[in-house]
Each structure stands twice: as C-alpha cells, then as structure tokens.
Amino acid sequence: MRFEVVSGGVAAIRPLLSQTTLIALKSTDPAVNLRLLGRRNFGLGTLANIIVGFALHGTIYILPQYLGQVFGYSAEQIGFVLAWTLEPPLALRKARVLRPIAKSRR
User: Fold this and answer.
1) Tally of domains in the chain
2) What are the φ and ψ backbone dihedral angles of 49, each rounded to 5 degrees?
3) Residues 15 and 1 placed together within one structural domain of the fold
4) Which of 87, 67, 92, 91 is nearest to 77 (CA)?
5) pLDDT at 103
6) Residues near 43 by Cβ (< 8 Å), separated by ≥ 6?
7) φ, ψ for residue 30 (rounded to 5)?
8) Do 47 and 30 belong to one domain?
9) In which domain, by residue range, is 8 found?
10) Residues 46, 73: one domain?
C-alpha cells in the first residue's frame, strides 16, 4: 500500500518538476537561476549541503523512529543511543580546539 502511494506521488510530481525546470532554463529572468548549478563550486557546495541534510535528517528523525518502532526502545533509551552517536564527533572537534591551547601552556 505505501509503495503504491509513494510511486503514485512521484509519478504525479515528475512532469511538474520537469516542466518547472524547462521554464526556469528558458526564461530570461527566472525566479530561481538553475544555471548556477553548472558552476563547479556552487554545484558541489549545493550537493554537499543536500548530502549533509539527508545525514542529519536520518540521524535526528529516522534513527529514533527506527529504534522506537523496530527495537521497542523508550524515549530515554533512544536518547542514550543518540548521545553515543553524536558525542564522538563533538569530542574530536573539542580536542582539536583544546590541543593547541594545552601545548602553548607548557
């Protein structure tokens, strides 16, 4: 049931998205200039932001839903899992900042 709804929604949106893209590319003064994505730095920056957005969405929203529904974790247990998931990168960043300060005090 869910697959049919999603595939139907994608099938309905695809022509609208392609038509909007064609209009934006043909227009002399578009609301959103899609040609900017052709520039290397801007296009790669946009792609990197999209990837980071998906990763953050997966960590913040989908992972707690998965842990709660599949494993039956409580809100507290999900919080502990997320703390272990998010803490190591923050600790590494903090160590990089504090390491030069500790060396300068010697």
Assistant:
1) 2
2) -65, -35
3) yes
4) 67
5) 60
6) 36, 37
7) -75, 155
8) no
9) 1-38
10) yes
pLDDT at 46: 93
| b/e burial code for range 10-27 (CB count within 10 A of at least 16 → b) | eeeeeeeeeeeeeeeeee
- Kindly state whether residues 61 and 87 are assigned to the same domain: yes
Q: Which two tokens stand for residue 30?
A: 């578009």
Q: What is the pLDDT of residues 43-52, one digit of tens each?
A: 999 999 999 8
* pLDDT of the residue at 98: 61
Which amino acid is located at 81 in the chain? V
Please give the Cα distance from 60 to 39 (Å, whole number).
31
Query: What stretches in the chain show pLDDT beneath 50?
Result: none
| Same domain? 46 vs 34 | no
Which residue carries 């998931």 as its tokens?
Answer: 85
pTM: 0.54
Query: Angle at CA 84, nearest 5°, toward 63 and 73?
Result: 45
Same domain, 29 and 55: no
Q: Which amino acid is at 59?
A: T
CA–centroid distance for 78 within its chain: 20
CB 4 within 8 A of CB 10: no
